[in-house]
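Example S7 (C-alpha cells).
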C-alpha cells in the first residue's frame, strides 16, 4: 500500500465498504476486471471532456477536467499494456448498472445538473480508489503495484470533483451528497447478475462460480 496516500477521506466519503464477496469474484475473473477497468478509464476521460465542452465558462473546471482526461487516457494505455502482456483480448463487455443508475437521478435544470454530475464523478472516483486499495494486496506483484500507483491520482480526482461541486454550487451540497451516498451504497451492496469493476454484491450463482 502506498504510504503517502491517506485513504481516510475516501472511506469516510463512501456509505459502505466493498464486500469481500466482490473481491473474491474479482480475483477469479481478472480478465473481465481488466477489460472493464479499461472501459472505465475511457468513460472517465469522456466524461471530463464532455464537461470541458459543455461548461466553458468555468475556468477552474476546464483546467482540472483537462488534466483528469489526460491522466485517465494514460491509465487506459497502461491497462491495455498489461492486458497485452497477459494475452487478454479487448472484447466487448456490457456496462454495469452503476453509473447509469446514479445518472438517472441527476436534476435537469442548471446549475443543479452540473452539481449532481460532479458529485457522481466524486463517488465514482472514490469507489475506484477504494477498490484499487482493497484489491492490491491480493494481486500479483505487477498488477498490485499498478493498482497501488493509481491511488494518488484517483484520490485527487475525487477531491477535484467534490471541490468543484462545492465551489460552483454557491450553496451547501450536503443534502445531495447524502442522497447519492445512499444510492451508491445500495448499488454496491445489492445483488448484481454480472461482475464488473463497479458492480454490486455478486449473485449467489456468480459467487459460487467465482469461488470455485
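Recovered sequence:
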Amino acid at each position: 500500500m502506498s504510504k503517502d496516500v491517506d485513504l481516510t477521506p475516501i472511506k469516510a466519503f463512501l456509505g459502505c465498504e466493498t464486500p469481500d464477496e466482490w473481491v473474491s469474484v474479482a480475483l477469479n475473473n481478472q480478465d473481465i476486471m481488466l477489460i472493464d477497468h479499461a472501459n472505465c478509464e475511457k468513460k472517465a476521460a469522456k466524461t471530463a471532456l464532455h464537461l470541458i465542452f459543455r461548461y466553458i465558462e468555468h475556468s477552474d473546471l476546464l483546467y482540472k477536467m483537462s488534466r483528469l482526461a489526460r491522466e485517465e487516457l494514460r491509465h487506459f494505455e497502461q491497462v491495455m499494456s498489461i492486458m497485452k502482456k497477459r494475452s487478454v483480448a479487448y472484447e466487448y463487455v456490457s456496462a454495469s448498472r452503476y453509473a447509469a443508475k446514479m445518472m438517472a437521478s441527476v436534476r435537469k435544470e442548471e446549475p443543479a445538473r452540473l452539481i449532481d454530475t460532479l458529485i457522481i464523478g466524486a463517488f465514482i472516483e472514490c469507489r475506484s480508489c477504494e477498490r484499487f486499495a482493497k484489491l492490491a494486496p491480493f494481486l500479483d506483484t505487477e498488477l498490485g503495484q499498478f493498482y497501488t500507483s493509481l491511488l494518488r491520482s484517483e484520490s485527487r480526482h475525487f477531491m477535484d470533483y467534490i471541490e468543484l461541486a462545492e465551489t460552483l454550487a454557491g450553496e451547501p451540497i450536503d443534502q445531495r451528497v447524502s442522497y447519492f451516498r445512499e444510492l451508491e451504497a445500495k448499488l454496491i451492496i445489492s445483488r448484481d447478475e454480472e461482475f464488473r469493476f463497479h458492480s454490486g454484491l455478486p449473485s449467489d450463482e456468480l459467487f459460487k462460480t467465482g469461488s470455485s
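Notes on this example. The chain has a mean pLDDT of 94.
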